[in-house]
Design goal:
It is built from 6 helices and 7 strands; from the N terminus they run E-H-H-H-H-E-E-E-H-E-H-E-E. By secondary structure, the chain is of the alpha+beta class. Strands 1-2-3-4-5-7-6 form a 7-stranded mixed beta sheet, sandwiched between helices. Strand 6 and strand 7 form a beta hairpin. The chain is globular.
Length: 166
């Protein structure tokens, strides 16, 4: 029937597609808050390029098209921070977001964090459902630089967990 979605590490040449996808995907988040200055919408292409080069970034592809993306890095406190998870609106609800999360978590485990951390806006029920379904638990709230109240979630890296190779 159609092509399958594949998950892989992002390459430098993916930055522009990630940038465009992020802008598309986060429109619905901006609408939830009546704030079109949220961080994913004001991020520059150069900044996305820097993140692709410096951090753990994965993409979901349908053929040559990037239809999903996620980023992760280890923060100063030792937590693996995951962010900017997005899936093209026409493909949401098919497990791509969970697959991207598993891929970035597996890669970040190699860097030795004790826990994974992710945050989302307090009105983002779909995101919260996904994160809780894959094992994240609310640990608190914070205020984003854009003024949006965020729910902060974490999950522990299971003892003895090592990333598996494909």
């Amino acid at each position: 029937m159609g092509m399958s979605v594949t998950i892989s590490a992002a390459a430098e040449q993916d930055a522009e597609q990630i940038f465009r996808l992020q802008y598309l995907c986060f429109q619905s988040e901006a609408a939830l808050y009546g704030n079109y200055r949220i961080a994913p919408l004001v991020q520059t292409l150069d900044s996305v390029r820097e993140e692709v080069a410096a951090h753990c970034v994965f993409v979901a592809r349908l053929g040559d098209e990037v239809v999903g993306s996620v980023r992760g890095r280890v923060a100063e406190d030792g937590a693996a921070v995951i962010g900017r998870l997005c899936v093209h609106p026409r493909l949401q609800g098919h497990g791509i977001g969970a697959r991207l999360l598993r891929a970035v978590e597996a890669a970040l485990v190699e860097l030795g964090p004790q826990r994974f951390r992710i945050s989302t806006g307090h009105r983002s029920e779909g995101n919260l459902r996904l994160y809780r379904r894959v094992g994240y638990e609310t640990i608190g709230t914070s205020q984003g630089e854009d003024g949006v109240q965020l729910i902060v979630l974490e999950k522990q890296v299971p003892a003895g967990t090592y990333a598996t190779t494909a």
